[in-house]
Amino acid sequence: MLDYASTINNDNETRVTVSDINPEMLAEGRKRSLETAYAGSERLGFLEANPEKLHMIESDSVDLYTVAFGIRNFTDKQKALHEAFRVLKPGGVFACLEFSKVKNSIFNSIYKRWSFGAIPLIGQLVAADRGSYQYLVESIEKFPSQTEFRDMIVEAGFLIPGKGWEDLTGGIAAIHKGIKPLKKA
User: Order of strands, edge to edge, in the sheet holding 88-99?
Assistant: First the structure.
C-alpha cells in the first residue's frame, strides 16, 4: 500500500498502521516489514489491538480500513464493523477481503469436499497441525454469505457501492466495500 501511495500517487506522507489482536501475528508482520523499504520508517506502525475496541484511535481519523482473511475470526463482527465506521473519516472506505460462499452448486460441492478433506490433511502433513486447518475450513463455512455480510456493513452505517462486494474465483473469496457517508452541512 505504501509502494502504491508513493509510486503511483507521488504521496510520501501516507501512513499505514498494521494491527492485530494476536502479538505473535503482529511480531511476524514486524519481521516481514524489515524486508521492505519502509522498515523503521515513521510511515509504518504496528498496533496490538482488539478490532472491537479501538479506543486508542480517534473517531473520524482514518482514510482506509482494510482487513484481509481475518474478520471471520473476530468474536463480534458487527461490533468491529461499528468500530471501523467510527474511526473512518467521512468519505473513508472500509474494504474487506474474506473467504465467502461459492455460487455454483456443482463447483461448491467439489470445493467443500476438497476443503474439508484435503486442507486439514495438508495441514497435518506440511505443518503437523491438522487442528488449525480444520478450524480454517470450519470458520469459512460459518462466515456469513456475501449478502448477509453486506447487510452487516450497511447496518454499521456504511453506504454500499453497487451490490457491495465482488466475488473472486466463483465466490471462494469476495471483496466487500463500504463508504462512510459525508457529514451533511
Answer: 62-68, 88-99, 173-179, 165-168
**Could you tell me the pTM of the whole model?**
0.91
- Residue 7 per-residue DSSP state: I
Rounded Cα distance, 100 and 113, in Å: 16
Give the gyration radius of the chain's Cα atoms.
Answer: 18
φ, ψ of residue 182 in degrees (nearest 5):
-70, 145
Q: What backbone phi and psi angles, to 5 degrees, belong to 75?
A: -65, -50
pLDDT in tens, 163-182: 999 999 999 999 999 999 99
Q: How confident is the model over 109-133, as pLDDT tens digits? A: 999 999 898 998 998 999 999 999 9
Beta bridge partners of 48: 20
